[in-house]
Write a structure and sequence with these properties.
31% of the residues lie in helices and 27% in strands. By secondary structure, the protein is of the alpha+beta class. It has 2 domains: 243 residues, Aminopeptidase; 106 residues, Alpha-Beta Plaits (2-Layer Sandwich), CATH 3.30.70. A hairpin with a 2-residue loop joins strand 4 and strand 5.
Length: 362
């Protein structure tokens, strides 16, 4: 029997108000374990801080996968009629809460595992650890996975772009600002390198193009001196028609050198894009569950960002991303989710279990 709306609301507010930026999820993990221990067969925190909860036995094995961390904005959660607003409420506290409740109040005829992971917004440490645990035989391989992300109550996501980060940095001799031709300026050099990378990768603003977005720029020491150092961090998103190796091989070792300066690029860890069959069994199970709960079919969608689906797909391709929350507002102080959507998501996740069982048995 599923929980009433008051239970859903209270748990959600508790979870939403716990500050859990990447690397600081322990308080939230402890809260989730305390809540679930009376509702599941087993629940624990693994070596890296992930919460693993198990209910039921046998096969198939279904994973409900969501992340506990948020971007580092302290929550100021407020309720306006049916809407809950505040940092982290959509990404990822609403899908997280709905999955926890669906597991807690379901009576599965198979094995259902909740995986609440750490550091999705930064290093993906939690999901990488789960993949390693499965490949080494320390954790049972899932037969189907639902990634809890704020896709919107009537959308399922089957494509995510890949991602990496570039650090462009430049060092120079410096000099007096009154004689700018006396030395190459690192600030100008990092922008020159950015333009070079942009052209080399044929970057653009369309979904099918690689996107390059400068996110941090630093440089300079004093107001009247040509800088001796500058750096730029670039967020890179990779559409499905490319791979990490294709992108990084084009820019690796790139440099601009003259008599007084040197400008180089550093490439961070890269996550490949992912695209799965929209008719894979787990995708079909979620679509059927949405249709039965909402009375309408969901819309298949592609996301501009990257999620843990890009990583978990390595151990299971019966996978889809779905969850409540207005995705357009994520990573802002105005993140929002409708309480009615949250409650319906609990029903949809719970019904997904039976729908997947029927598809697998058939």
């Amino acid at each position: 029997m599923l929980p009433d709306s008051d239970t859903v609301f209270r748990l959600f507010l508790d979870i939403a108000n716990i500050y859990s930026p990447s690397g600081n999820e322990r308080e939230l993990a402890n809260y989730i374990v305390k809540f679930l221990k009376d509702h599941v067969d087993d629940v624990y925190v693994d070596e890296v801080g992930n919460v693993i909860a198990v209910k039921g036995s046998g096969r198939p094995v279904i994973w409900f996968h969501a992340h506990m961390d948020t971007i580092p904005i302290r929550p100021r959660v407020r309720v306006m009629n049916d809407l809950v607003i505040g940092p982290g409420v959509a990404d990822d506290k609403a899908p997280l809460t709905a999955m926890i409740l669906a597991l807690a109040f379901s009576n599965p005829k198979c094995r259902v595992v909740f995986t609440g992971v750490v550091e999705e917004e930064t290093t993906s440490r939690g999901s990488l650890h789960l993949v390693k645990s499965v490949t080494e035989g320390l954790l049972e391989r899932p037969d189907g996975v639902v990634i809890g992300e704020p896709t919107g109550i009537d959308r399922v996501v089957y494509v995510y772009r890949g991602s990496t980060k570039f650090r462009v940095f430049s060092r120079a001799r410096g000099g007096h600002a009154s004689t700018p031709i006396a030395s190459s300026n690192p600030i100008l050099k990092i922008y020159e390198m950015y333009r070079k990378i942009y052209e080399l990768l044929d970057a653009g603003e369309e979904y099918s193009k690689i996107s390059l977005v400068p996110t941090i720029v630093r440089g300079g020491e004093v107001l009247n001196q040509i800088p001796t150092f500058a750096e730029m961090f670039i967020d890179v998103r990779i559409p499905p028609r490319y791979s990490c190796s294709e992108v990084t091989s084009k820019v690796r070792g790139l440099e601009i050198v003259d008599e007084t300066s040197r400008t180089e690029i550093e490439i961070y860890e890269c996550i490949d894009p992912v695209q799965v069959d929209i008719m894979n069994p787990m995708a079909r199970a979620v679509i059927r569950a949405i249709t039965k709960v909402l009375g309408r079919s969901p819309t298949p969608a592609k996301k501009w960002g990257t999620s843990d689906m890009n990583i978990i797909v390595k151990i299971c391709r019966n996978i889809i991303a779905y969850g409540p929350g207005e995705h357009e507002s994520t990573h802002t102080e105005e993140e929002c989710v409708k309480l009615t959507d949250l409650y319906n998501a609990v029903k949809i996740y719970e019904k997904t279990i039976d729908e997947f069982l029927q598809l697998v048995d058939r």
